[in-house]
Amino acid sequence: MSEDQNRFIADHVIGLPRSGIRDFFELVAGMKDVISLGIGEPDFTTPWHIREAAIYALEKGRTFYTSNLGLIELRREISSYVGRNFGLEYNPQNEVLVTVGVSEAMDIALRAVLNPGDKVLYQDPCFVSYHPTVMLAHGVGVAIKTDAESAFTLRAEEVKKSWEPGCKVLMINLPCNPTGGVAERKELEEIAKFAVEKDMLVISDEIYAEMTYEGEHVSIGTFPGMRERTIFLHGFSKGWAMTGWRLGYACAPVALTEAMMKVHQYSMMCASIIAQDAGIEALRNGDEAVKKMRQAYQRRRDLVVRRFNEIGIACHKPSATFYAFPNITSTGLDSVTFAKRLLEEESVAMVPGTAFGKYGEGFVRCSFATSYDQLVEACNRIERFVNSCK
Amino acid sequence: MNEVFKLLAEGERLNDRQMAEILGLSVEEVEAQLAALKEKELLLGWIPVLNPEKDDSLAVRAAIEVKITPERDGGFNRLAQRISRFDEVESCYLMSGGYDLLVVVKGASLHKVASFVSERLSTIEGVLSTATHFMLRAYKEQGYLIEQPAEDKARLDVTP
Ligand SMILES: Cc1ncc(COP(=O)(O)O)c(C=O)c1O
Questions:
Q1: Which residues of B touch A242 (CB under 8 A)?
Q2: Which domain holds residue A360?
Q3: Which of A53, A253, A272, B82 has a CA 20 to 30 Å removed from the CA of B55?
Q4: Which 3-state string (H, E, C) describes chain A?
Q5: Residue at B8 is within a domain
């Protein structure tokens, strides 16, 4: 009998690519004294008042399942927060669904709407899970190019160019991990019109919205005809430094929320009640802490972007997120070689752009959510490395 | 508010050269901004934050509630300023509520602090009464936590 257990594994799972992040993680894991600019999460621990709320929840014995949709108090806070800050109105009773991170929200949104073979337009480079999550939902991903010439903004022209018959969903992430790209209001309006014209559903992941340094954050769901076709995704991981709590949410019109709820109810049941209690505190009293973290990131951004350009790896100034995405082609290396050699020769970790999609070639992602002295030292090492490539 | 001030307010200890590197300024520019902050008395100066649990020179500290008689010109100011000038006084605040001044006093021994209060403070003309509270243990000093378990920052080296 064959010892090969692959025969038990589903074809579409066998077909999933390994994450480029994971490959890179394994390289870094074996090394000492690495300065890592490869970490896609805040370096701040969760603000104390939020942690305290969770301790209190435990003390009070709040250790049970919650409603499938999530605690109504949390859904009310979400509804009011999203109304206040994004200009989107959702009824906390039946249009807000609390999830285990945006990761789960994205998964159940896609599983709720895709039939096998349906196509999903998504921006590239993008968060590593996007394409695999589409594949796991038996969909087909269609990449939309974003590029350095337009500071990785999402442009209507590229969306239209990438569209093909069978595209049912447009999945976007603005501001974007890994590029820091956003979309100008005019472009987003045009994209919204196009979505209406082609009758596409839009899944909008706005998890980095709080990390907007310049300009306004615009939600695609606010344009005419969009509310009925938009699933708004957001979560606590980035803005409130709560990655480990695993808490996010999806907001959408009743029928879509109900459909996602079905998938959620039979797979996840509900998000952790302790995390949900912490989330209530985060939305009620977290604005100050979020603002302080944003200001700290902004100064770090200014530092790394200035240094990268001085060093000769051209880098646009991202108006949001804690990622810089410099162009490393001046070194004559491709992304993976650059990242590997930088790690081996100078012990600095940055993730190759190709981990985020084919249009990431020629770039690396630098997460500047780390301390000043580490950033200054990392930039000095990168400078030495880049000079050695000349 | 200048750039140097915003950076200082984040609370990391940085020297002039590091601040210059971070802000993209020359060291001279950083020094000029620091000088401007001092000029405006927004930045009063620098002192190390010592751990009262370990630093023997701070062996005893007390918070003293002081009631004083306000004066026709200047209210509490003249007396408060006079009290502030003693070396033993670490800080001095005008308070709302049941007393007027909160005076934090430090000294090498219980006896020294007690005699400062009884011989210096309470004998000042206009001081009506004092109530002395000796501090027994510090849990947080100027924003720094004391003898609490360090945070275990378990971030992975590479994450999506
Ligand atoms: C664009 C984007 N979406 C979603 C996620 C996942 O977030 P969560 O922790 O809420 O699952 C991340 C995390 O890196 C992200 O960058």
A1: none
A2: 2-46+288-388
A3: B82
A4: CCCCHHHHCCHHHHCCCCCHHHHHHHHHHCCCCCEECEECCCCCCCCHHHHHHHHHHHHCCCCCCCCCCCCHHHHHHHHHHHHHHHCCCCCCCCCEEEECHHHHHHHHHHHHHCCCCCEEEEEECCCCCHHHHHHHCCCEEEEEECCHHHCCCCCHHHHHHHCCCCEEEEEEECCCCCCCCCCCHHHHHHHHHHHHHCCCEEEEECCCHHHECCCCCCCHHHCCCCHHHEEEEEECCCCCCCHHHCCEEEECCHHHHHHHHHHHHHHCCCCCHHHHHHHHHHHHHCHHHHHHHHHHHHHHHHHHHHHHHHHCCCCCCCCECCEECCECHHHCCCHHHHHHHHHHHHCEECEEHHHHCHHHCCEEEEECCCCHHHHHHHHHHHHHHHHHCC
A5: yes
